[in-house]
Specification:
Length: 443
Amino acid sequence: MRKLIFLFAMCAPILVNGQMIIREADSLHKHYAQKADELLVADSSLYSFFTIDLYGVSMFASAEDKTRNKPEYKVNWSELAIYKRMMANEPRELAIGIMLDKGGRPFGREVQKQYGEPANREAVVFHPPMQPLVGYRIAIDPGHIANDTIIGKLEEKFISMNIPAGTDSTHVAFAEGQLTWQTAVLLAARLRNYGAEVIFTRNGPGMTAFGKTFEQWKKDDYQRTLDSLLHDDPDNQNLKDIRSGKLKGDRAIFRFVFRDAELRKRAEIINAFQPHLTVAIHYNVDESNAPWSRPTNKNFCMLFVPGAFQAGELSDSEKRFDFLRLLLLDDIGNSIAASTSVCAQFTARLNVKAANTSDAGYLSASCRKTGVQGIYARNLSMTRLVHGPIVFGETLYQDNVNEAAALSNMSITDRISGQQTSKRVMQVADAYFEGILQWVYKQ
């Protein structure tokens, strides 16, 4: 009899101080605490904003609220399955509203009713041998916007330099936005050819996520965006200086008004599509070589996944929502898995080494290691705001002496997309494609 009572106690939930402790509480506590320590927390001050214990996870708006045990968001381990199903089905803004309304209480009756039981499994999609990506939705985010060096200079994402050419030198000039758009078009053509459904976050060279150029956005939407940002953050000194005229010019408008709003629009487009994978395409530079007017011999690839919140980056409710989401969902692990396959293709096909933390200052200052060389957790806007697995690729250094020459040689017409491009950009697109394909096969 005593043995039966002991077994019942081991299997049944236990109420302590009115809170439920489930059988798996200890292992869940250890798993998520380790995940937070290794991948999400990049500064010890962040521990003032959350607790992970035998009851579940609580997020707090301040250290004082933590002391008073007044959570802004809370998920008990007994609610974890409901939370995951709700997050998988509700749009981002509605999910934030549900979690804020919940606070430290249990989920409301309607949420429990809707997500208390697993939904019927989706029908299995048949994947024809020649089209193994049928049923996959893939979002491609061509980084930046420039289609010329004028906007490239505005973004500070451009190359303009002389590179050795025999006994002479040749001047090359291009913007990163041009390379990312070309790569996106090439990659999309290959993915669609294999059956995937693909969208872009911007719909043409030189275009923004708002469906217009930066100049068109400035004419149509700048003032309204500035007013909205100041309404939400009236103490933001940069915005106030722009309003008063103390900060002037396109560079200030781009940096403090346009950029964050446009990145949010990209994430909004992606999340509405609910992709199986997001691919953010970028090309890197040697940080010690600014302003990139001369070539460097350095060349590395790297990829970023969500995580590595810095000091002050749990300062608002939305960021705390994302911290909780990234902690409890599988987006980081799935992003590492997809990025690992893509990184392997970068190094093999492009002959570019995967970066160690010592190869760039921001890798040690702003990132956390993931256990895979070349792949780092970093709290970028896109890695934080995009839901689901993301491959955020920094393929190679554009200012490398050999890469700059190869990237600027636009003498190839791609047979699949019909786009005029360089052989090197085509190789980059192929590396992304093969990496994605390998990730899908491993699934």
